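Worked example

This section walks through a single chain of length 410. The input is the sequence exactly as stored; nothing has been trimmed or padded.
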Amino acid sequence: MVAFIIPVSTLLVRSTCMAAFNKASKLSLALNPINHKPNVKSVIMLNSNSVQLNSNCPQVGLSIQPLSPDILERAKIAYSCRRVVFEPSMTIVSGKIAPRAGDLVLANVDALGQHRHIERNDGRRANLFPGDKIIVCYGNRYAPDQFEAEIPENIDSCSLVAAGGMASQVISQHATMSIATAITPIGLIGNAKGEPINIKQWALPALEQQNHKPHTIAVLGTSMNSGKTTSAAYLICGLVRAGFTVGAAKITGTGSPNDSSFMRDAGAYPVFDFTDAGHPSTYHLSNTEIETILSTLTDHLATYKVDIIVLEIADGLFQRETEALCLSGLFSKTVDGIIFAAGDAMGASFGAEWLKRQGLPLQGLSGLFTVSPLAILETKKYLNLPVFNTNELSSAEIADELGLGKLRTT
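Given that input, the structure is written out below as tokens.
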């Protein structure tokens, strides 16, 4: 494999990086990648677009190599990258470059830790072995029961912090977690010009607001693993049994096929998540970005003319992005009803009171606490709200419990 080195002197890299790249925008390098016929030249153009993709301008030369078909065929490609269309002209970009959320990276698995498998782009769970090549995304992760992780400033060794395919640097971890699986990036995946590609390039486009607005129910919760996805899936099952067409979306969280598959198996179609909107995770996104995910995914669901949309919002009400979304005007405008999932009676009580203070349409409680008759009694002692276990959520009668009978006549 032939590497093409772009020296500092050639790129005129100074403190004013953007200006230097703009001046060098017409610079080209002749190269003879493998599998090309001898004496046939391809040209890589370097221009300001590459700086826009990675705003931290490199301070040394970059190495740009062809991404060989053999590596692409053998690499285990993660769920987070599933919308990407891989092309023969793609490249591997390495050197002093700062990755962004959603940038694709080819990495070597060094040592197995907490994540000993990867969720592939075809939805299959694949075992990992030391020495494997994987293609994942850089991203930030917020998971109180697992890892907090942030995108590193370079493409040196880091960790696989989510099975759905996320390269990041661990900041903290739950005491029960093993050390994160260690990976070494080989380079960012680039286009034919050597510009790093990003999953945003394959994201669903924003749509004009649809005339058809399906009835929308959001499932919120106290925390990670409070029963939100289970509640959402069983609710979908009940609504489908009641004769409704249901679409679903997970608006925030960390990319994984598990939650979407659960909702799809329950009868929802279509099912989207924030990765369809171009984000491997939603930790550290701005309020505007989170709201754009909400509007984009619900608008696309509306084009399918579904009767009802069920949304899952990750983590708990205290999580920054979740709280900001719940307090937004767009959320109030979009959501017609809320099911709140909690792990215990006190969490259910606090969450219900918080949602009521915000004027949000809380319709019932569910979650992990509903497996305990005593926890249900404790909750009902302080709250005058329906409590639904999985059997009740998955029954066709749930539609009438939530006052959705009127939708059958519209």
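What to look for: Residues 23 and 253 are 40 Å apart (CA to CA).
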